[in-house]
Amino acid sequence: SSWFGFFVWAALLVVFAPPTEELLFRGAMLFGLMRRWSAVTSVIVVTLLFTALHIPEAMHYWPALVFIGGLGVACAVIRLRTGSIVPAVLLHLAYNLTIVLRVVLSM
After folding, report:
1. CA 11, CA 46: separation in Å to the nearest integer?
2. Which DSSP category does 1 fall into?
3. Are 65 and 54 in contact (CB under 8 A)?
4. Is the dihedral of CA 92, 93, 98, 104 positive or negative?
5. Considering the entire predicted model, what is its pTM?
6. Count of CB atoms situated within 10 Å of the CB of 48
7. How far apart, in Å, are the Cα atoms of 78 and each of 19, 58, 73, 91, 105?
8. What is the pLDDT of residues 21-76, one digit of tens each?
9. CA-CA distance, 31 to 27, in Å (whole number)?
10. Is 55 helix (H, G, I), strand (E, B) or coil?
């Protein structure tokens, strides 16, 4: 409810979460799982884990999990096709920024 609290939330969502989550999920986890499983299976498992991590945020609107899962798949595909984590981080950042802007516009 305070502007400071909102700023901290927005900064975490836009600046810190995308690189941290992408390095963890589409970096370490995805390529770790691909040592044992196919790329498709690894993407599915990583996406399910990524989506599950976001369940508490989507409790008030569970269909958001569909979009979160879609983001996870898109980031994984981009990561595999480009060989770089940077495009996935940028997509994740853009997704999170749209959430922040939607909240700002609804204030």
Report:
1. 25
2. -
3. yes
4. positive
5. 0.91
6. 12
7. 14, 24, 9, 9, 30
8. 999 999 999 999 999 999 999 999 999 999 999 999 888 899 999 999 999 999 99
9. 6
10. coil
